[in-house]
Amino acid sequence: MRGGSAFRVDVLEGARIALFSLRANRLRTVLTTMGIGIGVATLLAIVGIIQGLNTSFHRQLASFGANTLYVSKFPWMIKGDWWKYRNRKNFTLDQVARLRTLAPFITAMSPSVSRLSDVSYGGDQMSTVRIQGVNHEYLSISGFDVTAGRFLTESDEEVSRPVAVLGADVADRLFPGVSPVGRSIRVDNRTFQVVGTLSRKGKVVNESMDLLVLIPFKTFLRNFGRWRAFEIAMAVEDAGQVRAAEDQLVGILRRIRSTPPGEPDDFNINKPEAMAQTYAQLTGALYGVAVGVGLITLLVGGIGIMNIMLVSVRERTREIGVRRALGARKRTIVFQFLMEAASVSAVGGLLGTTVGLGTAKVVSLITPLAADVQLSTVLGGVFFAALVGLLFGIWPAARAANLDPVEALRYE
Amino acid sequence: MSQVSGAGEGRLIQVDDITRVFHVGGEEVRALRGVSFGISRGEWVAIIGQSGSGKSTMMNVLGCLDTPTSGRYMLNGKDVSRMTDDELAVIRNVEIGFIFQTFQLLPRETALANVELPLVYRGVSARERRERAKAALDKVQLTHRMHHRPNELSGGQRQRVAIARALVAEPSMLLADEPTGNLDSATGEEIVRLFEQLHHAGHTLVLVTHEPKLAARCPRAIRLSDGQLVADGPGREVALGVGAAALAAGGA
Prior knowledge:
CATH class of chain B: Alpha Beta
Mean pLDDT of chain A: 85
CATH architecture of chain B: 3-Layer(aba) Sandwich
Strand content of chain A: 15-25%
Largest interface: A-B, 26 and 25 residues
Structural class of chain A: alpha+beta
Number of helices of chain B: 9
Number of helices of chain A: 14
Mean pLDDT of chain B: 90
Order of helices and strands of chain B: EEEHEEHEHHHEHEHEEHH
Strand content of chain B: 25-35%
Low-confidence stretches of chain B: 1-8
Largest sheet of chain B: 6 strands, mixed
Number of strands of chain B: 10
Shape of chain A: elongated
Number of domains of chain B: 1
Radius of gyration of chain A: 33 Å
Helix content of chain A: 55-70%
Oligomer: heterodimer
Order of helices and strands of chain A: HHEHHEEHEHEHEEEEEHEHEHHHHH
CATH topology of chain B: Rossmann fold
Largest sheet of chain A: 6 strands, mixed, barrel
Number of strands of chain A: 12
Number of domains of chain A: 2
Shape of chain B: globular
Radius of gyration of chain B: 18 Å
């Protein structure tokens, strides 16, 4: 009857007494749980928002194309001296042509240059629209689809035709309910004929990818200046080849740009993937600080639990004496109080989870940040809270169990 | 561990030369100084003495709430004077039914739940617990109050609940500490009658008290004074100071 069943008695009786005590002290339970709850809520809200940021960032990066590379004299994220990059020689179309022949593993390649302009049709005007000069191969690199009309062609490029393909935002704003194909728009007082429209990509880090107008690269240079630095967008067969392509490109580009041996590269190979890493570094620090704050809140909550458990032990000194006299072992008493501490904390964890998730959801509704909380985070929150309760319950529980039964029975 | 001595054979309780020394603020207090006696199954024995006589310490030792500093305590054939804390918890659960002066009921639990408590620690299933607790409450005529909390019961009813709790696990002995101390005389009388019934039903009763009138009702009484046994005999004689036992006590 003893042995195995003794443990069962410890657990069952511990749980029963714990729940009983929680119900008997509702107000105190609620107040005590609030500390832990706020800790968990803080932690969850922060983790949720950051997870959301990460997920959307990665999803959006993927729309850039994981199999793409962008060669430029500028890195995407400049660390250190901007002038160093500014003073590098620009790429030339001749270099693009040589790269084309020397790098057969590149499946699509397009020079790319852009500026922000005003775009108008009839009386409607949009400002700060990205005007991007690219060639006919850019479609497969960009990940856009053509939803109406056609994309830019090789001949558009050769003869610098004044044609344009509209991003979804521009098409929707300037041509609500009508097809823009065949109509003429004005970009900074120059006229372009719309030949096609693009599918919608959505936002990347709160910036619309669809607020753009694509025109032939040479048309861009002719209209908006040929001195501009441009980047070379390219795609390889699939994402797995990006790294190998990058290694080969370094050698080829150094040759094309006649970089003397020993000199550092005077170009950067940018990848959406690398951007993700830089981003991860950035948010990693933020993450650390936020989690630290949450943990400190939890610690404070844990001390609250410990305090209330010590009060509970004192209040129930005689009860402990009675239970000991009637056959409760020390372990049973320890279980009783640990269960109580853990369940108070778990209730707090549950409340905190609800509030934390709610906060994250509200944040995602009223701000562009998309909160994304995974089930594991929720379960982790409740579990973690219970664990905090257990940890901070150990000392009070041990005190309760080590009371001398004779003294405890006499306690007034 | 459970060696049976010649003297203790057949006896439910056998204490041999028990001492208990406390250290209070660097000073040695000898609460028991070599007490020996035996109690057989079915006896009703009062342990009496003035405050400071050592009777409370004796009761704690007999109840396995405390262990003697030296000497041996055999309970139901087992040497409990050297047991670990966990083993003592089991002994208390199985062998002893406590009845306290202040009842010591859990205030937030119903009478029924209070009576069930010893069975909880014995690992008895909930349904069986309920049945046995009801039966125990029936013995003290309190089944009609079983769903009430202690604060809804009178003093006498509370003590009857406590007695039911002591009976429920069918221990070897009932150990009562001033069971009528917190009751008016009429209610106290009720409780004493209940003890008489239990005695006739064959229960072993040990009653610790300072009231000679109560001890006089017991068939046997043991008087402690200054940590030593000074008289052991029929309750009336030891408690009220008449007859041979009193003479023996006077002689000592």
